[in-house]
Amino acid sequence: MTWHRLGLIAGGGGLPKAIAKACSQDERLGCVIALQGFADPADFPGATVRTIAQFGHAISDLREAGCDAVCLAGVVKRPDFSALKPDWAGVKLLPRVLSAATRGDDALLRTIVGAFEEAGFTVVGAQELTGGLLAVEGPVGRLALSEADREDALKALEIAAATGSLDIGQGAVVCGGLVLAVEAQEGTDEMLARVATLPPNIRGQAGARRGVLAKRPKPTQELRVDLPVIGVSTVIGAAQAGLAGIAVIEGGALIINPDDVARAADEAGLFVVVLPRDEVETP
Amino acid sequence: MTWHRLGLIAGGGGLPKAIAKACSQDERLGCVIALQGFADPADFPGATVRTIAQFGHAISDLREAGCDAVCLAGVVKRPDFSALKPDWAGVKLLPRVLSAATRGDDALLRTIVGAFEEAGFTVVGAQELTGGLLAVEGPVGRLALSEADREDALKALEIAAATGSLDIGQGAVVCGGLVLAVEAQEGTDEMLARVATLPPNIRGQAGARRGVLAKRPKPTQELRVDLPVIGVSTVIGAAQAGLAGIAVIEGGALIINPDDVARAADEAGLFVVVLPRDEVETP
């Protein structure tokens, strides 16, 4: 759908900053709403700070700035719903949010996306605004993957598809065919830290790297929010876990600061690879 | 199949000890082979100590003791296969073991079970020897589960079935409908420790316990080895993770030292419940 002016609702991490940067010359960016406790307002000069429970205020902010579209980007952890202090529109939304929250992250995000759409806004994916961050086929750094790596990558992508279809998470680590770890609420960084503590004989290590982290969208997921993200911290975590590399699917992940990611991967001796869709069997 | 004399191949943890105790008055127990690095030989007076790579020696031990059956019980971690010093029979077995090891734990165990069967032994499940440990329907301690707990228990069992069918693991934790964690190579204790570090708002805590650990066999698993095990340490881990309880399926788990498990659950204010098969929807 065509839209004319965008509001960015910013959570934590590098993605909202990358979007604000990509839109900095763009007169279509009408306002930024920095979510309290997640986004650092210092990163977004002129932003309005709102809590995640101030849905009505956010809608007013967007309308006052003349926005007809909104982009939800960045990390937002599940709140303590009982401690929220919602505004009036937030109160009305809360029962639906609470019900969806028990089904999984994708269900929760769909409800929030739906609420913005019902309020008349077009919801725009980060990838529409920062085309340069969307994963395109090929290696991101200098290293490519070996045949053994490719098998691990395809199996990890298959596992991530299966767990994603249950709305569990987007990531998995496979080494030598063995599923070392599956991501749920702990997140990717924590999963990688766990792999680093597994017995050395079932994983790789610096100098003899083995195993692949794969991330992919959940098969049914709302792709305008919560696309898997790969950043420098992901590369560092994968390196510490002894992995040979990281695999995502074309169009199925955002690479934040791709030059930095490539440099970090090259320095650590890891590959970061974007596989073509048709190479990835979806179970 | 009928058998007359049994050899117990003991790994770590409480299960082999419970079996040896249950068979202590039993003239059918011909010998115990304590696996070096896993079983403590002091727990098994008169046992022969062998490494997991001494397959040929183990077969000879069993035959010399007049055994026609074998029970594989207890925790054995995946070894560093390249560091093994197999005997001649072990060398012949190793390629099949290595190939299976890349597919998952169940595949690996099937190969080992198959090797004992090919050598002419009947492989007997722990549950045949210690009927009293096999989970039977009902609560193990004093506490029963609420309706909300039951929903979490059924969802956790469903998730464990799905991940089990991919040979990932046997356990999952669900709280308020949300999948908090899925078990892979880290094991149950480590998964519970991770849940204890998740944000307090998505899990329970002492005094306001929420969420359920479920364990079940993988749908296609070889049930004579590696049945899920619940022991006192599982209860303690679940308590520290703020969970309301633990759920397994009738006939689908072994409860080690059930009186101690019940006491630990009562003291911590957790339920441990064995659900009837027909109540658990298998996806």
What brief labels describe this structure?
9 helices, Rossmann fold, five-stranded parallel beta sheet, globular, 35% helix, LpxI family protein (chains A, B), six-stranded mixed beta sheet, homodimer, alpha/beta, 283 residues, Cytidine Deaminase, domain 2, 13 strands
Describe this structure as you would to a colleague:
The structure is a homodimer of 283-residue chains. Chain A has helices at 14-22, 55-64, 88-101, 105-118, 126-129, 147-165, 188-195, 232-240, 258-268; strands at residues 6-10, 29-35, 48-50, 69-73, 122-123, 138-139, 171-175, 178-182, 212-215, 229-230, 245-249, 254-255, 271-275. In chain A, strand 7 (171-175) and strand 8 (178-182) form a beta hairpin. Chain A has two domains: 6-129, Rossmann fold, CATH 3.40.50; 134-279, 3-Layer(aba) Sandwich (Cytidine Deaminase, domain 2). In chain A, the strands form three sheets. In chain A, strands 6-13-11-9-7-8 form a six-stranded mixed β-sheet. The first copy, chain A, has a five-stranded parallel β-sheet with strand order 3-2-1-4-5, sandwiched between helices. A two-stranded parallel ribbon of chain A has the order 10-12. In chain A, helix 3 (88-101) runs antiparallel to helix 4 (105-118) and helix 7 (188-195) runs parallel beside helix 8. The first copy, chain A, has 283 residues and is of the alpha/beta class.
Give the distance, in angstroms, between the N- and C-terminal Cα atoms of chain A. 32 Å
Number of strands of chain A: 13
Quaternary state reads homodimer
The outline of chain A comes out as: globular
Beta-strand residue percentage of chain A: 15-25%
Number of helices of chain A: 9
Based on the coordinates given, report the CATH architecture of the largest domain in chain A: 3-Layer(aba) Sandwich
Pfam families (chains A, B): LpxI_C, LpxI_N
InterPro entries (chains A, B): LpxI, LpxI_C, LpxI_C_sf, LpxI_N
Domain LpxI N-terminal (chains A, B): 5-130
Protein name (chains A, B): LpxI family protein
